[in-house]
Specification:
By secondary structure, the chain is α/β, with parallel strands linked by helices. Helices cover 27% and strands 27% of the residues. The structure holds S-adenosyl-L-homocysteine.
Length: 209
């Protein structure tokens, strides 16, 4: 489908804000965000803002989706794990830039809706599981890239580092209150994890069951 004027404006805005990777911009441009938001927010689907998706959760701001996707340094053979499927939008963007996305959502209603939506829209290389994403998905590990879209209060759960491939990248928001949260990028190299702070963010909390 050809992008409309609102979509084109959004892509220009993301580029101006520093999302410069053409593959990432292309994936966002091809993803129909209006299909991922509730009916009443469709008119705002291509605004650069987070929007409610029900159950007190939100679809991330397109800039943050772009930033996190770009930070993961995806490649076509990559196996990716996402924590917090939500409406499935971030997973849909990722799926166009890697081999397979495994995504975990603890909220049954959101997960079921996302599974259906991703299937209808034809994102066939996304596999969704209902459960606690903080435990990762050991049966499918190791992952080349891991992305968390809900914020852990203090640190990334050790299970996720354990399931990251050598040389892999993990991107996650960390911080107890939404007023004091940052996005971090971690690179695993042997036993070492190098960390880098990217920017201030506001994510819903990672809930442990
Ligand atoms: N990536 C999503 C944004 C999701 S908002 C999108 O593109 O729409 C964060 C999501 O993380 C919420 O849906 C919330 O239910 C989920 N979540 C919170 N804690 C979780 C956990 N421990 N395991 C799996 N999902 C979790």
């Amino acid at each position: 489908m050809k992008p409309g004027p609102r979509q084109i404006r959004l892509i220009m805005e993301l580029r101006a804000e520093g999302i410069t990777d053409p593959d990432v911009l292309g994936a966002i441009e091809r993803t129909p965000r209006e299909e991922f938001v509730p009916e009443q927010f469709r008119i705002q689907a291509y605004d650069n803002t987070a929007l409610p998706i029900g159950q007190g959760q939100t679809i991330s701001q397109p800039f943050i989706v772009g930033l996190m996707t770009q930070a993961l340094e995806l490649f076509s053979r990559a196996k990716v794990l996402e924590i917090g499927t939500g409406c499935g939008y971030q997973a849909a963007v990722l799926s166009q830039l890697c081999r397979r996305v495994y995504t975990i959502e603890r909220h049954r209603t959101l997960a079921r809706a996302a599974i259906k939506r991703l299937q209808v829209l034809g994102y066939s290389n996304v596999t969704t599981m209902i459960g606690d994403g903080a435990k990762g998905w050991p049966e499918q590990a190791p992952f080349d890239c891991i992305i968390a879209t809900a914020a852990a209060p203090l640190e990334v759960p050790q299970e996720l580092f354990d399931q990251l491939a050598d040389g892999g990248i993990l991107v996650a928001p960390i911080g107890r209150s939404p007023m004091d949260q940052h996005l971090w990028r971690y690179r695993k190299s042997g036993d070492q994890i190098a960390k880098e702070r990217l920017c201030a963010v506001r994510f819903v909390p990672l809930v442990r069951d």
